[in-house]
Write a structure and sequence with these properties.
302 residues; single chain; alpha/beta; 13 helices
Length: 302
């Protein structure tokens, strides 16, 4: 099995180097690494050429996009140029654990029908340290729990975000056929939308209940998270694309979890009709008389 690692990057050479080093430390090395650099400056290019290439145990193909392609087009660019049968999709600031590729490749050898595999994620701070246990809730929130290890329903996994935002191994032909481009639907929820569309193919995923990747909570991500419409976009995609008979208990729980931030975002970004509709829906009704519900009600008028 040939495995390509793809990493889109933008003005984060220090974090990119950490992620590349995590790739070099794998117990099962990838066959190639593709880097798509959208940076307007040459810092990352100098890093790659002067420091990374001389010590890399893996062939690296580096592309510096001028002008920038932006993330979605950058990912599709890298997907199209990868040579591996499988693609490990990474963010430039999220390193992987040493056995990531070994753990995620093994299910493809046992179950040739799967199109993707993924594992657990740890949340790390900007400096790379693990966040306290009270911040390590994302795996349980996304149904990445021991009893679900193995083959999982791809439709449910994509709809509830069980399929992660990065650090997954995917069949290259499938990834290219689905494509990362979202047609303007997903905004900054493109990671979710890609996993959701993979799940709509109804071809099985495999969940490995082992830690394979890290998710870095940067100051940029935290500040951006207060303003972006990702919660609104992902929820609207679910309501637009899922039929009532397809709603499982897991999907309905995911909708409830997304509902509260989505209402607030929708009330602030000009989608108040949707905000009002969701506010009085069955998914939010139990929260109307809470302090959060009252704050969301006020936000609909301000």
């Amino acid at each position: 099995m040939n495995i390509s690692v793809i990493i889109p990057t933008y003005k984060r050479p220090v974090l990119l180097e950490e992620t590349l080093d995590s790739c070099f430390s794998q117990t099962r090395l990838p066959d190639e690494i593709l880097i798509g650099d959208d940076s307007p400056d040459d810092q990352t290019e100098r890093l790659i050429k002067e420091q990374i290439l001389p010590r890399s145990p893996v062939p690296i193909r580096y592309f510096h996009h001028k002008p920038s392609l932006k993330e979605v087009a950058n990912v599709d660019f890298l997907y199209a140029r990868s040579n591996g049968k499988r693609i490990l999709h990474l963010h430039d600031d999220d390193p992987i654990y040493p056995k990531c590729i070994e753990y995620l490749a093994e299910p493809f050898e046992r179950y040739p029908e799967i199109i993707a595999s993924f594992g657990l994620q740890h949340v790390i701070a900007e400096d790379g340290t693990l966040l306290p246990d009270d911040r390590q809730h994302l795996n349980e929130a996304y149904f990445r729990v021991p009893e679900r290890e193995g083959l999982v329903d791809p439709f449910v996994a994509g709809a509830v975000g069980m399929f992660p935002n990065n650090g997954f191994l995917v069949d290259a032909t499938t990834a290219r056929s689905v494509g990362y481009a979202d047609g303007g639907r997903a905004g900054l929820a493109t990671d979710f939308y890609f996993g959701f569309r993979l799940g709509q193919l109804k071809k099985p995923f495999y969940f490995v209940h082992k830690y394979t990747a890290k998710v870095r909570l940067t100051s940029q991500a935290q500040s951006r998270g207060k303003l972006v419409d990702s919660a609104f976009r992902s929820l609207k995609i679910l309501f637009d694309d899922i039929k009532p008979e397809q709603l499982t208990p897991e999907i309905e729980k995911s909708i409830r979890d997304r509902m509260r931030p989505a209402i607030f975002v929708a009330s602030q970004n000009g989608n108040r009709a949707w905000a009002w509709k969701w506010y009085f829906s069955k998914y939010h009704r139990p929260y109307i008389l809470t302090m959060g519900g009252l704050r969301r009600f006020v936000s609909l008028f301000t």
